[in-house]
Specification:
Blueprint: H1 2-12, H2 19-23, E1 36-38, H3 50-53, E2 57-58, E3 61-62, H4 75-86, E4 103-109, H5 111-126, E5 134-138, H6 155-166, E6 174-180, H7 193-212, E7 218-223, E8 230-232, H8 245-261, E9 275-280, H9 297-300, H10 310-324, H11 331-334
Parallel strand pairs: 4-5, 4-6, 6-7, 7-9
Antiparallel strand pairs: 1-8, 2-3
Helix pairs in contact: 1-10, 5-10, 7-8
Length: 335
């Protein structure tokens, strides 16, 4: 599998970045994300991807994307996920069922999520499998960490609405969302405190999304990619995105889903949308996971050690494509 990803990286290494990332004035790469430099010789801790950890433990917490160390949905959570998915149907701009309406899937996040989601969008649109009734809209904005988007008054949502309107769509047609985000200003690296703090920010974001998108049926949470090749500059800027917070990010997303499964207060469907895991993009750098996925420091990661090259974007985008075009909660409305 590592050979496959190397060939994929080489094949797209010369490609340019999606035009939407470079030319959209609403999505610059924020200075708080770029005050870093790359080092491919950093010797990181021997952390294990959550998906590979399975029934094993990290500092007393069991791995796997779901309870019991599992990476697949099961039981009541699976049943509810399928039930939510079955409700997704083409809607008109007023959010009413319409034969000529649209199912809208949006991406929510900052710069890396933006390029990852854009690569997925391009792969989906060129696959020949995407349903004409499904629209994939990238509402990610560079530099916008969760702390800049989790309030209903945040400019992020006006920009998202503008992006939808430019595509002839509305907030009322959004029924599915892929979310990958981080608190870019929080430098705490104490486990489990750091990922638990991010959970609070994430819950506020989900409450806001429930308000903004009244037809939202499923939110797919994604764990961030490895950022351990990045070294912070002396003035501490950008620490919220750096290692090991990249690893902790996946724990946040997993725990969010587990709280909803347990029907904990503040995480029920009355409080936030239905949430489930989707892509998990973390690998220990160039060390392949059990499924073969990894990030090559030279080919897949840019000069700042944080943002992905065109090759890395395509590799991450392929993870999204494989998920959405095979997952039982999405195949019915995306292909």
């Amino acid at each position: 599998m590592k050979t496959f990803y190397l060939l994929l990286a080489i094949a797209v290494a010369g490609c340019s970045k999606p035009a939407t990332e470079n030319n959209n004035p609403a999505s610059p790469v924020d200075s708080t994300e770029t005050n870093t430099e790359k080092s491919c010789s950093i010797n990181q801790q021997n952390l294990i991807p959550i998906t590979d950890l399975g029934t094993g433990y990290y500092r007393g917490y069991q791995g796997g994307l779901y309870p019991g160390g599992q990476n697949q949905r099961s039981g009541a959570h699976l049943s509810l996920a399928l039930s939510q998915s079955a409700q997704i149907q083409p809607l008109n701009n007023n959010g009413q069922p319409a034969a000529n309406g649209k199912v809208v899937l949006i991406g929510v996040g900052a710069s890396n999520p933006r390029t990852e989601f854009e690569a997925f969008k391009q792969q989906a649109q060129s696959s020949g499998l995407l349903k004409p009734s499904t629209a994939i809209v990238n509402t990610c904005i560079g530099g916008q960490g969760v702390q800049k988007m989790n309030q209903a008054s945040a400019n992020y949502w006006q920009q998202a609405e503008n992006t939808l309107q430019q595509a002839g769509l509305s907030m009322q047609q959004v029924q599915a969302a892929w979310v990958e985000t981080e608190h870019t200003g929080n430098a705490d690296t104490v486990f489990p405190r750091a990922p638990q703090q991010l959970m609070s920010d994430m819950r506020t974001l989900l409450v806001t999304m429930k308000q903004k998108f009244p037809q939202l049926k499923i939110v797919y949470l994604s764990g961030r990619a490895f950022s351990g090749f990045a070294q912070a500059a002396a003035n501490e800027v950008g620490k919220g995105l750096l290692y090991p917070r990249d690893y902790y990010n996946g724990w946040t997303m997993k725990w969010m889903v587990e709280k909803q499964i347990a029907n904990e207060a503040g995480y029920t469907l009355s409080d936030i949308p239905f949430i489930t895991m989707s892509t998990y993009l973390w690998s220990r750098g160039a060390n392949p996971r059990n499924d073969g996925f990894f990030l090559d420091c030279i080919l897949d990661v840019g000069p700042d050690g944080l943002h992905l090259t065109a090759a890395g974007e395509q590799k991450a985008g392929q993870q999204l494509y494989q998920f959405f075009f095979s997952d039982p909660t999405s195949v019915g409305w995306i292909r």
